[in-house]
Protein 1
Amino acid sequence: MAAKLSAPADIAARSHPIGALPAGTGALMLDTYRLTKRFGAFTAMDSVTMHVEPGTVHALLGENGAGKSTLVKCVAGFQRAEEGGILIDGREQDIANPIVARALGIGMVYQHFTLAPGMTVAENLLLAGGKTPALIDWKAQRADLKAFLATTPFSLDLDVTPASLAAGEKQKLELLKQLYLRPRLLILDEPTSVLTPQEADEVLGHVRDFARSGMCTVLLITHKFREVMAYADSVTVLRRGKAVHHCRVDQTSPAQLAAAMMGDAGEGVAPPPEGDAPAELKAVAPTGRALHTMKALASNAPIALNVENLQAMGDRGTLALHDLSLSVRSGEILGVAGVSGNGQRELVEALVGQRARLSGKVTVMGQPYTAKRSENRELKVRSLPEEPLRNACVADLSVAENMALRDFDQPPLARGGLLKFPVWRSRARKWIGEYGVKTQGEGASIRSLSGGNVQRAVLARELAGDINVLIAANPVFGLDFAAVAEIHARIVQVREKGGAVLLVSEDIDELLELADRIVVMSEGRVVFETPAATAERHVLGAHMGGGHH
């Protein structure tokens, strides 16, 4: 450990706003003081000072890699900072490991489930306590658990196993495990990433109620502005390991938070004037979209992609797609919404040729389409798959070679059976400049690039030339704010030039922003369709959750 920086007396002397709370119970006050964490030469967290009031929901907002997870892992005892201090109720604490954190009343719910799948809900709850007796008096324990559940807004059957629970119910069980331990500080790491909007509202609503009751303080990591605005009291924005913006939620707006997240070369971020969205955001949201949609429908643009009664198997040998039908017109973005695991991945793979089709018919511009390379070229079909490094690249090949995968055997990249490598390289250099791909050069292996830059390289390849149909699956998953804005703008450009876009996304906000029409997939079927301009979040959520009207 490097020399600890002791926190100044003014932080230590802050009075407890909840007044008469006995020591060691109820919501705690958390302060971090100049907390710094390095991994080798990389500084993941750089002198972060943050104040979290007891009994409040405090949101941590920032791009991937901004330092959010590092910060909460230090507070929860999973990592140790090299410098700085953590104060609980104004006293500096050395949180050496998760056991110390738990003793201080700190609990954490992870993004990934940590349930024992073969054990019942009751057993999972008891296991969380960590002090399970050798012989369990189940009658007394069940009565205790039932009494505990009665104090929470969730109803889960104590006898079912997590294996039979939906994602939303698993997330509730993860939360119940922590609440059962009566935490004084509850850390939630993107708790809603697997939930429908309804489930997200339910979970966050309850969490906020627990905080307001004075029972615990909540630190919420999220990347959704809507959740911050609706459920948090205060927010800290992290960027590149630094805390760049602190404010009360009722004194900010999504546009100001976006500007703080994106920042500029200067470190100090002055919030933009109220209501003024950053330029990147303006570029993404094309004005008069409803008008554009009306025109596209009125002009009866041709159907570019048509899918009829498509069936395909899932990885577990059961049907993943049940007679699925949809169509996308030229000059239209059709959004496909759904909670992860409802057949969206299988749909995309069946369309792009990565998964066998059992039955059904797919046409592009009226021609049969079986996703052969020659058809992709003739019918001008392109795709932006999820996890591009795994699904759209050959990791060990160079950036230039990956950019040439579509047309390496076509002129001008090949002549008379000979491959023209200098042409590959010069085109790659042009695209690297055009798409702002950060790489050591066109000869670097594509696996050496960050996620956003891999996606930019794939975009350059897929968006070159004319496009009839673009199939995009979670195209901005895990990317930072600037990359998201840029990729969205390029997808919109495909539509503006008359291409048809099938946009599969688990992010409702992305679909509401970009799509002309939205369909919802649930259990391998299309269960609902609506124009995006009049789509209502709660209605989409009801269908995503399998609740059909």
Protein 2
Amino acid sequence: MSAPYDNIIIGAGHNGLICACYLAKAGRRVLVLERRPVVGGAVCTEEIVPGYKFDVGSSAHIMFRSTPIMEELGLAAHGLEYIEMDPWAFHPIAGQPGGISFYRDLEKTCASIAVVSPRDADAYRDFIARFGEINEGVFETFMRPPTPGGIFGTIFKRNLFKPLSRRLWSSLDTARQLMTSYGRLIEETFESEAVRTALFWLAAQSGPSPDEIATGDLVGWQAMIHKHGAWRAKGGSGALTQALARCLESMGGEIITDAPVTRITSGSAGRARLEVQTADRAFFARSVTAACHVQTTFLNLLDPALCPSDLRHRVSHLRVGNGFGMIVRHAVSELPHYEGQPLNDQGISPVHGSLQLLCPSRAYLRHAYLDYQRGEPPRDPAVLAMTFSALDPTLAPPGKHVLFTWAQYHPYALSNGEDWDAIAEREADKIYEVVCRYAPNMRGALIDRYIQTPLEIERKLGLLRANVMHLEMSLDQMFFFRPLPELSTYRTPIPGLYLTGASTHPGGGVFGASGRNTAQVVNQDLHRRKI
């Protein structure tokens, strides 16, 4: 047996690669095994339609640029470049030319809201000030392993030393707002239906329903976007993971693709604690980090002899949910023309670089959610449209564009006897029709498309039951509860086995905090010879 690796990472998604890069930077011998023929996981860009670069998972990188990861790993030197989305969100309003635009600059955003409701512009300014301070503390907890002492200590520190925080946290009403649902919080804070709807649809992107308790901060978190901005990787979402792969290899790390792992078991000799098996090879390591779904790790890959039966049972009962969305990637001949939005001579408006919130009312979104609860595709899907070729012409041929449409709510398991493969075209047509209602010029503009139903999302990306967050992002599965209390610090009861990725703290999205946090834990244990 050759000398074991210090760490083998299973899965080349962005968190797995970030973890690998930090370990390699610390001088560790690292191997990444990826089941697909390309790296990236759910942060990947492919030319599915010739000439068009389609993201097959995430598209907007809302949180990554708020971390120090790009600078710490020197990713710019490996070709990574970001373009800011500003405005970062746009809500067109029927009969109200211009709509509401959300800019990084708070005052520009308030000016846009004031056209619809001056009172709500003032309310939004105050709301962002209050939740901005709260979320500075939340962000601190996201950037390290979660423990009750660490989380409450951060809150106490900010409460003790910052006057604004003292005022906020002395108010029981602020605590109540955090514990209420985002639907209730939006309704009590704002009066305009247009403003309420825009914020409703933004908050819904993390998955929980508008009425779930302790979700108030899903709308408050956008205060961090006003501080750090929202970003788009030039060349496609996968440009991030491609740069990470180049970074890792430049530091001596290894990546093997087309290598689905079949088993994690005990190491057979020497310093190897664990053995990782693929279909035709076995690799040995002092430690293993599973950057795949926590249920895939414990229920499919890990040798049952290594795992207490009670832990397997608890992992099997984590709430993955029933999916909550589908996405269609379109190649189109032109961009959507929204009423009242000026176009330049190339047919591009500033809002084309934003998240376009195509949801006419809160009632509309609730009706879609009720269909989802019945296990049926939504009769009228709410849509988030993205046209990033307006910011980045490298995504499409000259004069052509990409249109990505994420829609909710779409159950993975259907209760009406239908099959996702059979109804994919029909449901994709419904999503495109929503775009056409807001921008009639899009009728006849479709060239080709790639449909990612919930079933296709699971098949291609390994996201069980099409939950892009791995596990539901509710309070009982967040912070030191994610995925379970005994697994929340990235360590597991199995010596040498660690977890990273969306199944762990702080959850889903293109953030990278989990990969960075896990690397610190693994490197610390390697240094202390715990593994």
Protein 3
Amino acid sequence: MFTFTVYDLLAKNLAQNAHHPALICGEVEISYLVLEQQVEKVAHFLHQQGVQRGDRIGIYLPKSIEEIIVTFAIARLGAVFVNIHYQWTLRQLTYIVQDCGITILFTDKYKADQIVNSVLWEQLDCLVVKDIEDKGLAHSKLISWSNLLLSPNSLVLPSGPIDVDLAALFYTSGSTGSPKGVMLTHYNIVQSARSVASYLNNTPADRVLGLLSMSFDYGMNQVTTMFLVGGTVVLQPVVMLAEIVKTVRTHHITGLAAVPPTWIQLVRYLQETNITLPSLRYITNSGGKIPQTILQTMPQAFPDVDIYLMYGLTEAFRSTYLPSTRFHEKMGAIGKAIPNTEVYVVDPQKGLCSPGEPGELLHRGSLISLGYWGQPELTQEKIKVSEHLKQLIGNEKVLFSGDLVKQDEDGILWFISRMDALIKSNSIRISPTEVEDIVYESEMVNDAIAFGVEDELLGQIVHIAVSLVENPIINIQALANYCRQNMPGYMIPREIHCWKGLMPRTASDKIDRPRVINTCLGQS
């Protein structure tokens, strides 16, 4: 069958892969056939509740098979799935429910107890609760998951969506103001799976670890790429390093996707324990830059494994990747445009940049989202016609990333900084990433966030927040000495803020940069 929609990614496997494992979670394994049958049950339930194409349905569940079932059931009807990170607070949940008009929400007993005692309860028509018995439900709006699966498939489901229909809202972490709902169509999601699976060479034999949250487009893509090719997703609810390694070895994982904070910890863990992961075929990184010292160690931690460094935005899922064959040659680069996408480096005044010249990355292609839910003005600022590209693509709209990059003589792209995060000190532009890289090279820190602080004389000065590695000879003074020995004078941090323990993470498991900075400056 042809694959046009998110649901098609699942349904296409019923012909030849019906009994192949689609999902594994702990001791539970579920085939494509059984998964599709349960998706149909949930889709019928939603249809009986009056769900129409375009309605927004919330998913507030921990990583689980049920989370995947609900996602595909919503897509089956042409409704819009809104996967909300399980660690987000009731306040954040309430904002999202109100922002996009969610009336049906799937959650578990723990979160349900909070919801029914909050102002959010009155705004919901139905709350489906996992891990609770029917006798524990005290209100008609509460429905148990087990009872839902017993409901008969008594109605004929309406025809499904087409590829241009809205499929999902991915809410950003809200690190810069309130969370924003990025609108992705079925076409966006399916095309992203095709593009990524093509350069990762995915096959039905692959088993990918579902480590990342489904509320993060990078996490969702682990499922969609596997379903596209008929592979298997092994869900990883427990994110402790020892448990991740155990799952990789037990279930013979071939593909592992993570973000820089996880790679830093995992590489160090593998070094300390001398554990090997022989089943791995490839690993991928997105969501930020891995420190150079960790990059240099990765081939030893993951021998004979293809390493893919990638760059993307929720607004366009993914823009670039560095082929694994060029990892050693271009270590730390974000690479080139992914298949079926074009990217450009553009200076706002000069236009297209020559090799070595910094400029903003602009993205063209079918992965660009529809923009932000309910925020047309913000959408128009981000997705618009580029005057500098008119001679090449006319009035076609492109995505303005807000990221400063440069291209080398081989056409490979290198990330410099977020344009709004550059530190400008005494007329010198300083990349926070460059400062952080040098600090990571000291091997004294687990996490590092560099930022600018206003200064009357210089405009801004460099500060850095760090969480130190537990070691009796490592302290702030030792790190300060290292910075003085390894940085030019203008880059040396005027103040080092010590953060106890690992820094807080966003829903996508990146370091929550604004929260860390605001705390250091006494603003939160």
Protein 4
Amino acid sequence: MNEKFDALVVGAGHNGLTTAAYLQRAGLRTLVVERNPWIGGAAVSRELYPGFTYSNCSYVCSLMRPQIMRDLDLPAHGLQVIPFKGSVTMTADGGYFCSYLDHEQNRREMARYSPRDAEAYDDYGAEVLRQCRFIKDTLLMTPPDPTSLKPRDLKGMAWLGRRFAALGEEWMADTIRFWAMSCADFLDQYFENDVIKGHLAGSSIIGTALGPRSPGSAYVLLHHYMGEVDGNIGAWGYARGGMGSVSMALASAFRAAGGTVRTDAPVERILVRDGRARGVVLEGGEEIFATRVVSNMDVKRTFLECVDAGDLPETFRRRVEHFKIRGSSGKLNIALDGLPSFPSIPDDCPARTGDMHVSDSIEYLERGYDDWKSGTWSRRPYVDMMIPTLTDPTMAPPGKHFMSVFVQYVPPKVHGRDWTDADRDAFRDTVIDRIAEFSPDFKQLILHAEVRTPRELEAEVGLTEGNIFQGELTMDQLLFNRPVPGYAQYRTPVKNLYLCGSSTHPGGGVMGAPGANAAREVIRDARP
């Protein structure tokens, strides 16, 4: 392939496809190269057991920005998101606690455990909504550089300052505290019941190497509350056909505009000559030339593996080396011969169609984090499982079901060494045994189980250490610090080399915002 493209995107994950679709629609002839024979990165659907469609990595749709869905007309390209009706936590004593989309229904459920907490729920909801609204408007913006005197950066900093000042003195102080505090401390301000706090705290640890008592975990909780399905902030839903439907819709929008996706094309090196990106070299030696290269790989994989050290400033490379990417998650995808029973959850509970948690206190979550810190997977893990086929029966044969099981905590190495197959199988057994404590017929219904530790997530999806957010979502790695101070505007020290993945602002999750933001900057630079 000797032709030269206006832009080349490395990686057909959802952010890479988002960037490519915007670039192609702006008139830049764009090629996407993907190392796997399939597209989607972590937002992928695959049939690994006959008749069953697995959402292999990401498993729910909530953070995808509505503006991107409108801009690229994703529903016209087949994307359908079905909101689910709530979630439920099963308790050790055989009870359950549900949360619902309806505010008053949530209050009544909390009152079963604590009338005081039910009264506090309004204040809690108002605080979360206020924080979400403050952050939400920053998701699709390019972070201003606070050290720059360029008019654009000064204007951006002034906008942030006005937004912050508009909160008022009391809320300004609360916001500063919120961004730095632990989820446990935040929830303690409103609630007293352990089950309620344990249920809510689960969102603060997903995908992050923090415990609920770690400073900064309150923001992670907020990050997962910023989802929007049909206009409901915090609502989550299923992409019909699995999460690969998101990527397929993006790819369809890209191809409809004239773009090209090439699979089975692993990039070995990004070509840099005279300080400028010129294209890529594939494994096997093939060179593909492009005026601009956009990497959807994480920042470490991009600069420590695919760019020669001599083409980078030493200070920048050192900062990249110290960027925090720590794997903490695992995943099981399970084909079931029927619907498992969960005696603790009433049959008519609508939250059964959403996520079902095994974690009934903050203490439970913190003990699981202690195992991760000691170098092993949680012996009593946080389990976030769901059965999408209750809502989308197309993912399994009639009468059968698919279960997605997300797990915290799972370290990138086991006691400092690489994972073995025996470790993976022991981790699988730990998770299955834990679920079976709440579902007596679960084990008998298992037909097949795909197990993904950080080893598989790195080897198959390209996520360094298996980190699903391509980097920790902590204050030192957010906004104009993400991924590296001075390079948070999707550009890099190499001219015409850009980043568009979740290592950039605003971070991880299937939201498409990093990809859309990066595309805007590439298009800006491409203008005559």
